[in-house]
What does this fold into?
Amino acid sequence: MKIYTKKGDKGSTSLIGGVKISKGHIRIHSYGTVDELNSCIGVVRDLYLDAHARDILYIIQNLLFTIGSHLAADPEKSKMELPELDEADVVLLEKEMDAMNESLPPLMHFILPGGHVASSHCHVARCVCRRAERLTVELSETEKVEPIVIKYLNRLSDYLFILSRKISADNNAEEIKWIPQANRQ
It folds into this structure.
């Protein structure tokens, strides 16, 4: 199977269901950003040595492929049976966040990304997740998007923030507090 088809050379692509749309369409931006997020999470997974977190990140990566397939499908014309995303997937993230928070100090300041390379990459993934969420919300304003997709992306960005803190704690890396310019002495 060849990877290149030359069908997109003029700036259009086909959705699941066969409808052709511009590669500049918000739907393409949405699932393209989810794909970018998945790659960012792969970097975090490769950098972070905690076996349990790596297992959870693997589950998340698979769910992001599910989300990508839903966003890449024409909601009106696709007849393909797509994998499910449901409330249990959101609950898993919430349980993981609660468990990580038990071992972390209370958050008293805004923190700046940095301190450890894996934590920094986790912050990059969090930012890409927020962008994916914003684009998906924008798409949902004109086309059908399952609400669970937006909810999952919202919760995932929170998970990535807490995971960045856990990575810092596990590696004895200092959390870098944001100190507004006016308050520095």
Notes: The beta strands are 12-14, 20-22, 111-112, 176-177. The chain has five helices and four strands. The mean pLDDT is 91.
